[in-house]
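Aim 2 progress update. The chain analyzed this quarter is reproduced below.
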Amino acid sequence: MTDLLKLFDITIVTSAGVDIRPQDSNESWKTINEKYRDMIVDEHVYNSYQWFIDNTKRYDAYDRSGAKVFMGEYAMHTMADGRGRLNGDNNLRSALAEAAFLTGCERNSDVVKMTCYAPLFASTYHYRWTPNLIWFNARDVMLTPNYYVQQMFASNTGKYTLRDVSEVNDDNAGGLVIGGHRTASAVSRVTVKDIATGKILYDHDFADGLGGWKVYPNCRGGHIEGNELVIEESDAFNGFYYDAQRFSDCEVEISFRRLSGEQSFIAGVGVADVRDAGTMDSAGFSICCQYGKNHKGYDVSFDKRVDFMRTVCEMMGKDKFLGYSPEGNKLRLVYTRKTFTASIFKDGEWHEVLFKNIWKVNERIFQTASVGEDGKIYLKVVNVSGKDEELTADLVNFGTKKKASVTTLWHEDATVINEIYVKAGKRDHIAPVHSEVAIEGNSLKATLKNNSLNVFVIE
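Predicted structure tokens:
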């Protein structure tokens, strides 16, 4: 039998569905990596500013020998009307979020083979989707900040990617969260111990009161009844968090029972940056009876913000449901800087029901570097730190470099857009600017403006 794929050098590009979770949490991805590791998987993501920032390390955790990635559609969007309809402006802020994400794609180019912003064109006369890369009317073509990001990345790419060119802060220590979605539950005890030593870091019995646990912002909360914390049922997420201590490389054990409701009990560790807007950082797990995308406020408040850990709670389907019972349950979360595991105690033994790779993005300056066969170095740096930053790049083992240039996309207003009118006419407010940079003693120094993408070419 002739293998036509090999004969004609054809690579199959397949899909993992609409699930945006990465390969270790996505059932389609798992099947592809089990049976079809020579394929490329087409991923699509339209999501928030925070999602793109928090997923700059997404592909660091992908299987290097598994199927490869084609990020076939992506763009930063906003949740326009609270019901999940996507919308957005082609402003500098969205372009910089995409640029930050692209640094992660380029840095992991052994896994990510192609990327493609979408959609490409939009007519001012008739469109049903925003944002778009290039807008046009009967007379004019308007290039967006998002277009310039694509142009700057595509025009300045070497053949070899340079790794470990800057320090990485992977500290993911944080507090604890317990709660539920459309479910009432009662928690009796929470214990945290150090993985390496077994030392108890935290142990609280709710018979002694709240003990520093606080109602999550804008939630209904609950009360102490008997020896338990009762978390009341709510249509959206409802719960409590504890941030008086920060935990990492730890094992968390939670004793709880179901009181009423049809959805999920939620528990997480690594909680940080809790905000009144209903967002936080966390890694979490959820025991529930069903999985769906219509969890009212739940998905908007958690899924869009916390996705550096994927969905804040891995919703387990009925086939993996091990017993969220009124009689009582024990849940164990094992949390390190690289992995997250959830296990449930049933019938006298622990059952592992979830394992996934995790990461934490503390940086707000993102970079990728590559070198061409001609020796040119291409350094791309995105600064969304909130202030100007000073860059020093020491050129080690590259011989003597004589000159450098930089192309910068920047504006003091992160919401700046280029404008185009329906019938004719346009106004450009932002475009890349080119300048020269001095090299002193094989060291490049430059100021990175806040809200900027900078592409240095060193030769």
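Helices lie at 4-7, 27-35, 49-54, 92-107, 145-154, 297-303. Residues 81-85, 285-323 have pLDDT under 50 and may be disordered. These observations will guide the mutagenesis experiments scheduled for the next reporting period.
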